[in-house]
Every structure is written in C-alpha cells, then in structure tokens.
Amino acid sequence: MAEPDGTLTKPDLQVTYSDPEPFTVQSGEHDFRFHFSGDDRFGSLIELIDGAQESLQLCFYMFQPDHAGTKVRGALIRAAQRGVSVHLIIDAFGSDAPEGFFAPIVRAGGKVSVFLPRWNVRYLIRNHQKFVIIDRKRVMTGGFNVSDHYFASPQENGWADLGVTVSGPIVARFIAWFEELEAWVNQKGSQFFAIRRMVRDWEEGEGSVQLLLGGPTRITSAWARRVKLDIARGSRLDLVMAYFSPPRSIRRLIRKLSRKNSAKLVMAGKSDNTTTIGASRALYGALLRDDVEIYEFDACKLHTKLLVIDDVTYFGSANFDLRSIRLNLELMVRVEDAELAERMRQAIAHMAAAGTPITREWHRRNATLVNRIRWRLSWFMVSVLDYTVTRRLNLGL
Fold first, then answer.
1. Domain span(s) for CATH 3.30.870.10 in the chain
2. Which of 10, 56, 91, 366 has its CA 20 to 30 A from that of 145?
3. Residue range 209-397 in CATH 3.40.50.720
4. CA distances from 129 to 31, 50, 132, 207, 391 (A)
5. CA-atom Rg of the chain in angstroms
6. Model confidence over 104-122: pLDDT tens digits?
7. Cα 154 to the chain's mean position, in Å?
8. What phi, psi does 83 have (nearest 5°)?
9. Distance, CA of 230 to CA of 342 (rounded, Å)
10. 10-residue mean pLDDT series, the chain (397 residues)
C-alpha cells in the first residue's frame, strides 16, 4: 500500500525474504563464487584474510569502527603479525573510523593509506571501490563495505548486497590497478589530472572477463560506455541497482531495448538514503510508458549493483547514477558467459518477486504534484552531491 506522500508501506509482519543461495561458476580460466547473504560475505572475507600467506591489498570506501570493522581489523592485525604484507586504502570521506582505530594494524607491521579529500579539486573525488586481493591469486569484490549494516540479515534490515570471489587472469588487472592507486595516494598535492590519466589510459584486458574502471573523466566512464554499447546491441536487460538515476542517454537505450524485447529493473524500496529512492521515482513515468518492468525491493535495504544484458554480467562498486558514471573512482567486472548470465537472472527474479511491482496505476496514484516536485529535487540532489550528504537530507519519498 502507499501513504498519501507516496511512501510505500507494508503490513507490520516478520520479514520472510531469504537471500539467494551462494553458487560457484567456472568461466574459462576463471572461477567465481557469488555471496548474496551478509553472513556468507562476512565469513568468506574473514576466512580469506586469515588464510593469506604472503600479501593482502585492500581498498574500501567505508570502513567503520563497529563490530564488523573491529573483526576485520583483528584479522588484518593477525595477518601482519604472521609476516603477511598488509596494505589497506580507505576513503576518508566515506569512513567514520578515527585514525587511531587503524593504528594497531600499523604497529603490527601493516600499512594504512587514506584516499584523502582536500579543499581543492581532489576533494570532489570519492574512492568508491571495494576489493581485497589475497596473495596476488584471488580477489573478493562487489558492492559491500566493512560495516555491520553490510553483513546483517534481511530480518535485521541489513543491506542486500553482493560479494564475489574470483581467481584467474583478471586478478593481475586488480593488482596493477591497486599499485596505481598506491602510487597516487602517496603523492602530495591534488593530482586531479594524474588520476584522470590513470582512468583514461587503463587497459581492461582481453577476453571474456574484464576489469572496467570509472573516474573523473571528461566523458562517460569506460564501464558505463561499455554498458551503453551492450544495451544498445542487446535484447534483454535484467538489473538490480541501489541508486538508479542515469543520464538521459542511458534511459533512452533502456526504453528502446524494452520496446524491442524486455527490460526488468529492481530498485530500492528501502534505504538509509531516501533521497536516492526519490531520484529513481522521478524517472518511472517515462520508463513505464515503454513497458519497462519495475520493482521496488523492500524486504530490506538494497545496495546491490548488478546488470545482466543478454549473456553479459556486470558486478562491482558502481551505482547507475551520475556520480558513479562521471566522477567517483569505480570498478566493474564484465563477464561474458551464458551460464552465469542465466544464474544471475534467476537471482534477480528472486529479488523482484520479493518486491513491490511499480505499475502505471501505482504511478498515477502516487505521482502527485507535490511528490513529483520532491522526486525531481531528489534527482537534482543526487546528481551533484555525495551520498553521505544526501543521506543526511533524506528528502526523497
């Protein structure tokens, strides 16, 4: 049901939704393990860190000093104490943990670097990536941060998210990118143009598995350009996206694909940042006119970033919004594999079934003048402001 202001509500019943089961897929020389539940993601992350023998290279947008953050810190300390080379890069704007929280890692022999926002052009950039490289052989990546919310269950209103463990040739590209990030965070000054060059000149690799980047470039980021090309050529789109407010060019491609065959979008019905929900709702009308299927996932908060276009799957850190497409440092893994695409479509259908269908009738009922103004204002806010800022405003419903 919907309140007069357009806010979706459900009867106060116990949440019965369960995350999709984890599964493993082999694609060529690569092995993938997909972790949908917070408990599985957290257990796998700790296990990977505890199992490291030589090196750990970590990059996270958010690293909080809560229970999960303390447990991960403890695992990193143990790794450093047994002689593992540990280097953690965090984004200063995204992480609330004080400097002293990470000091025990340094005392144990590890290294902690801060992707530091400064009061110049560098301040605009957010390192929104999330990945861990273990012994230069395996990578765990996805949309999750190190915080209790990203490992809690749906019954606790934790974030529905995705973590992926991968081994194979793509790991070498992650290593190369981490080393470029290391060099950049150690440089003084803004170095805005240096990171633009890094992103612009990045080579994602050959073959069916590629590492695509995004960052502060003059044009649409490489990952988004590749997505646009796949959508333009494709006949089916299935998407789960926490923050959905892409530019008009991408929305047109989605509508065109829907007219050709089918497009299914699963968006957030719950979030700690309702401004982003309002921004998505501002776009529903035109999408519905072209028969795009839309669902708002409201079993719990949604943070997943996942696209399936025909036989191609994308997963990683990037949202489908202007900040992720034009400014933030992001990474997305592109995998061309029919079996994987089908398995991910099943997972997306599972999430859609737990959501609220957004129909033309829903839109007619809820797109009042007041709500349309609020939604458009939300769209404007998420287009220009950082997630942390819009979260504090929360004006989107």
1. 23-188, 209-397
2. 10
3. no
4. 21, 22, 10, 23, 19
5. 20
6. 999 999 999 988 755 454 5
7. 18
8. 100, 5
9. 16
10. 37 72 96 97 98 98 96 98 97 85 97 73 74 98 96 95 98 96 79 81 89 83 92 97 94 97 96 90 97 97 97 96 87 97 97 96 96 91 62 53
